[in-house]
Write a structure and sequence with these properties.
473 residues; alpha/beta; seven-stranded parallel beta sheet; six-stranded parallel beta sheet; 17 helices; 40% helix; globular
Length: 473
Amino acid sequence: MHYYIYPKNWDGEDIAFNLSQFDTENTYHFIDDKEETLSLKSQAEKIKQEEQSLVLIASKYRYFDLEENLESYGISNYVDGLKFCAFKLRLYCLEKITQRNPQGLCVGLLVTQLPHSEHIKSVIESLRTKNIPLVFITTTQASFTNYVQSYPKECVILSRCDLTEQLDFLTIALATTHYVKFHSQVISILNPQGLLDPVQNYFYFNRERVDLLIGSRVNFDYIFCHTKEMLEFYQYKLAGSKEKSFLSNPLKFIPVGYPSLDSYLKDPYQNRESNTILLAFTISMLNQQTQKDESGVSFDILSELVQSLLDKKYKVVLRPHPEKSKAVFMGELAKRFENTSGGGGVFIYDTSPRMSKELMEEAFAIIGHGSSVVQTFPLATCKPAILFIPDREFFVRNDLDSKFVANEKTHILTHSVQEVLEVCDSIKRNLKSYQADIKNYRAEHIYNLGHSGEFIASFIEKLILKAQNDKNI
């Protein structure tokens, strides 16, 4: 059989890639109206003449338009390519899954990072200890290859867009991002990757858009919460109160803890006296008129901040967000100070994929606002974070309690460069006091500290056992 995949979009490329991995006896070809030689017009007669061919329509939202195009050329041998590919994947995966679970029960993991991401590594290990079959859903071909090599006994597929929604053979699906949609028969779980989720969106978008983003999460059957503040925020925004209508059942928010933090705590952090301070700002959207983000941060303000810290003879380490879209003007900022050293402070631009343990031990504090690392750093090191939010009306404007971003035990809220400098001096003088408060907060507010991965795996196992019991009935 020869398959024509129409069009050559992300879904089409995912269909071709997956089928080429698991259905190797057949051949594949694209129809792409953007390229003359691959256009439907240039290939229509050949397609009609081939008895052993099938057109796979690779679009959820353009299906009827593309169907009409095919019919206009007299082509009737076509099917929904996403459903067809999902059917083929079902056959392939269930053959492996049923070897370990005769009823075909499994857990799908949407993985958006390389193998052994610290956020899900302990979960994977615990699920495999329980002999629960896994299906890794990757979003890049490089990641696909890495997971195949790391987990040869598990299923690995590639899906960047709407193919995921057609995977009806999954029992449970666990995602670290909210934008994905799973099949209606699948039990879906959101396991947010950041400690600030979903509050960090207030730093990117206006309040109305953030409320829509948060509201979209009600589509998940369960939402995992890392901290007491996260649970309270979700329940306030989505579960409602006596004064608000209910969008979700309060019990869908599960207090599980934070696997990434647990990975940091396995090897205790050492305290080292230094003059090093970290800067970590996540900035993706700017007001076109003011050139500031939602919190009032701009290139000029950050430049002033860096220069002032250097003038105070601090060693400043700038950590950009690993996603380029969330690191607006960080490279430009780095170029401005890249050769700064000597009589004043020292500037370093650190773009390593993961912040090193040595750097976290060296720094006495971190400065930022909407970045997840600004939440993780104080909990991992018991050293405070400085929240720098120039717009003093930020929390009032967003009807947001500041505790969801700047807990008084782990963070110190500032609105000006001068306040930041004063707080830096205070931290250096009273670091031990801050550390004691943070350690107590961590023990009281982070769920399942030290064993969140095992807790998550046990919760998933309960869902698997329920699904098994339902099948037996």
